[in-house]
Amino acid sequence: MAKKGKEQGAAGSLIELVTIVAVALGLALGIQAFLVKPFRIPSESMVPTLAVGQRVLVDRVALRFSDPQRGDVMVFKPPAGADENSCGGSHPEGTACNTPTKKRSDTNFIKRVVAVGGDKLSVRAGRVYIDGKLQKESFIQPDDECSICNLPKPITIPKGHFFMMGDNRGESADSREWGPVPKKWLIGEARVTYWPPGKVGVL
Questions:
Q1: pTM of this structure
Q2: Among 37, 45, 105, 175, which one carries the catalytic annotation?
Q3: How is the chain split into domains, by residue range?
């Protein structure tokens, strides 16, 4: 009887452990799917704000209640044109791409919102102008020589779309080449950096 009792106790402990692991895994997946998602910075496009390998937490909730604003750092699925740095339509020389492809890429990108629907955007020396006014962007690393750093002819951002640019203006493939991003392709706002320990903080 004692041996049988021990076997039942061990089986019960195993079932309890499996249940705890399953619940914990379910909670973790649920949190990532609906609340907060970790994201690793893959390139130098957000330097000096974010370095390669740095990790951020992405808020997936706020998008359900409000639209992103200029200056927000977002994780999103770009247009499929981002895979080849191509625009979804023809655009005059000296202007940014204003037409994304109809399909989206499967790759996650992280960039900053620099213009929203209805804004008239132009780029000069890597700096953003909205409705002809230079924007205050203390966080950027400007560049006046890259091929997409001087796009002086304004474009109008379509309603419900967001124009994304990396802070490292000379080393970022972004909406200048493949167009604005519709809200339905946005994943969430990067709010906190949690790794490495020396760079923990709020964005």
A1: 0.84
A2: 45
A3: 1-34, 37-202
